[in-house]
Design brief:
mainly alpha, two-stranded antiparallel ribbon, 4 strands, about 5% strand, disordered N terminus
């Protein structure tokens, strides 16, 4: 936040010299700002020198107050790595909606919660004057939420106007009226927050376990490379960060209220996921999407802490630290659930596979019986 510059004081001796010094002070607040009050020698017309008094109270022309603590260059690099992580998280569902020409894989309830949280996050970070990467990320969140919600309504309207372009929507068993797998069931409050968007589309053939594992490893490696590259590029691009210092934030009650609303919305959006995982055994979750979310939130928190550890900085940034830090804790619980239910998911998958084979055998046996009856007839 900016401060007001010093009020001018009438100095009888060397009026022209004092005017020049005042002009230089307002142009270079870091050199002549209120943090230092050196005695400046002024030369009178008779060659005598006198000491000027220290500057007066702040006025309207000073630049923002800056501090030179923390690791601003590293904080900037980590902040951009966080942005890269969230770009990967949001890109997958956006691309999938376009590929499937449907937004029914998304839950409007959770998107509404996210959008409300992201809007309050963005407004609070702007009002509070937080570090640039936090503001950029909040804006990116909001834009992606709007895109996803737009996709849901756009493709619903397109389906209504051009039903001939689509197959019937899936029923609760994942089959359409003809018994053929179709589009996913429309999302509801029971839909996972981060579902398996990275899996193959419903109309594509499934890959063998070995091929799928290789694809996943390639995808994971590419994601990690993108995140690290973003941080490295930001590190080299921010070589002047240490010299510039950081703008000292000033407490803004309105921004703090909005920031805490955003934090509670973020934390609350994970609670339905934890309850749902107990019923679904984490089936349909994309573990990589959760890992990317953890990476994004971890680097987000790190960028704030690396900027400064001063009590004022931490207190002002508390809503954003609690919102992201608490989400990391809840996401680790989700990852623990994913590991805990792994055995049950495997047994259920094997049972389903055996059931399919048994059904095929029954169908084949019935067909042979009918063929034998026809031959006897």
């Amino acid at each position: 936040m900016s401060r007001l510059p010093p009020l001018g004081r009438t100095v009888a001796l060397a009026a022209l010299s004092c005017a020049l010094i005042a002009t230089a002070a307002s142009a270079s607040p870091t050199l002549f700002g209120p943090a230092t009050a050196p005695l400046v020698a002024a030369t009178t017309g008779h060659g005598a020198s006198a000491a000027l008094p220290p500057p007066g109270p702040p006025g309207s022309g000073d630049g923002p107050v800056r501090a030179f603590d923390g690791y601003p260059r590293l904080a900037n690099a980590v902040g951009w790595a966080s942005i890269a992580s969230w770009i990967l998280v949001y890109t997958d569902p956006i691309v999938l909606c376009v590929r499937e020409q449907s937004g029914e894989s998304l839950s409007l309830l959770f998107l509404a919660i996210w959008l409300t949280g992201d809007i309050t996050n963005f407004l609070g970070s702007i009002w509070q004057g937080l570090i640039p990467t936090v503001i950029i990320l909040a804006l990116y969140y909001t834009v992606c939420d709007v895109i996803l919600i737009f996709q849901v309504f756009y493709y619903r309207r397109k389906r209504r106007l051009h039903p001939e372009l689509y197959e019937p929507l899936a029923t609760s068993d994942g089959l359409n009226g003809s018994g053929v797998a179709s589009l996913p069931t429309p999302a509801s409050e029971q839909t996972p927050l981060l579902s398996a968007f990275s899996a193959h589309a419903p109309t594509e053939p499934a890959f063998s376990p070995a091929v799928q594992r290789a694809r996943d490893l390639l995808f994971y490696g590419a994601g990690i490379a993108i995140i690290v590259s973003a941080g490295v590029i930001a590190w080299f691009a921010g070589k002047n960060k240490n010299k510039e210092g950081r703008v000292v934030e000033e407490w803004d009650t309105s921004a703090q209220i909005v920031g805490w609303v955003s934090a509670f919305l973020y934390l609350g959006s994970r609670l339905p996921q934890l309850a749902l995982n107990r019923k679904t055994k984490c089936v349909g979750l994309s573990i990589f999407m959760f890992l990317l979310a953890v990476a994004g939130n971890s680097t987000y928190v790190a960028s704030i802490l690396l900027t400064s550890m001063s009590p004022q900085h931490l207190l002002i940034n508390a809503p954003w630290l609690v919102g992201s830090g608490g989400t990391i804790f809840l996401d680790f619980i989700v990852l623990g659930q994913f590991a805990y239910y792994a055995k049950e998911r495997r047994l259920e998958a094997e049972a389903a596979k055996n059931g399919v084979f048994a059904a095929d055998d029954d169908a084949l046996a019935r067909r042979e019986v009918f063929e034998d009856d026809d031959e006897e007839a």
